[in-house]
Amino acid sequence: MAVINQLQAQLKYLDTLDFYRRKFQQASVDTGKVKSLEDFQKLPFTTSKEFQAEIQKPPSGCSLYSPEVTRVNLSPSGQELYPVYQTNKDLEFMHQVCARSLKAAGVTPQDMVAVTFGYHLFIAGLFYQGQFEYYGSKVIPLGPGESTRAVQLINDYQIGVLISNPTFAMKLAEAGIPSVHTIFVGGEPFTSVQGYPEKVRAAFERDITIIDSYSMALCMPIARSCRHDNGLHIMDEFVYTEVIDPATGEPVPLGEKGELVLTHLHKQAAPLLRYRTGDLTMLENKTCACGRELTMPQSVIGRTDDMLKIKGVKFWPSQLATILRSYPQFSPQYRLVVDSLKGVDTLSLVVEGKTDDAPVLDKLATHLKSETLLKFNEIRITEKLEDGPSVVDKRKGRSF
Question: Coil, strand, or helix at residue 273?
Fold first, then answer.
């Protein structure tokens, strides 16, 4: 079924929900006239603020709630929690999509699986539990922490597939878990941090399959890598993705950085329409042996709400923390000062770390220029940053 046909069917459903019907009316949009992807791109965006304002209403007053809801998780947003609604059909389709990705990861129904994510209000533990059970694998819900018990159970049951954040996985590997051949990682930046996958493999002292994922509580799954290690493939039967210029809202070409925008293709409860995630990434078409093409070459690399224009180049300071995580000598803490000297923008970066070794600084400078397309005028290292903003833009007299 062509993507536009799926979008048309979903739009017909969204038109029955007060939240979206009001948006269409306010924008003078007739969803029945959406005949192409170009037409679809003229529909209004949904912002996090307006979506959460609706979804945090009591179920009786929330048009995004469905009477068919069978599961309610919660997800943090600042100091608040907002509900994540799923119907049985939502869960079944989500599990079907994930099952295809599990096969692409090399997992079999005969595999024993251990899930070390939480099993309480939040979504991650049950998300993995459900998809592996649907696929037919055998799942032990270990939950977080208790590394000694986790190692014992993994070895007793000859666990082959581990679901964990990378840091905890490396801790377990140090204690010895030789049966594990595949890890699904999450909860931390991973493929977006240069050298991190290699670090995890080194901890296991053997070649293992590492599967990275990108999801958000309101839309799971979005993208997941496979055993062929070609980036994170978009689950394009589940979600339609766009990457836009965060300043103009216009689509950007494949391979260019921008803000990720999501639309559910099949969702009953709390469906998303052109939802602006605020996450900075890029998409590319890359044919993979697993059968998928649309891919995030790496996961999220920053946030779009801190964009600056430096020397005519769009620059997102939040990228810096991701880049710094690639260097064990540095913490992800930094202070960036943007100034102007005789009409020319200048960049000065102070990084919290324990070395000012010239080769390391040269490597960092090259890395920064490669990722940001900007040359930094000064890079300094300090053992401890003073309290203060991460970014100081002296050109405009603001900081954040």
Answer: coil
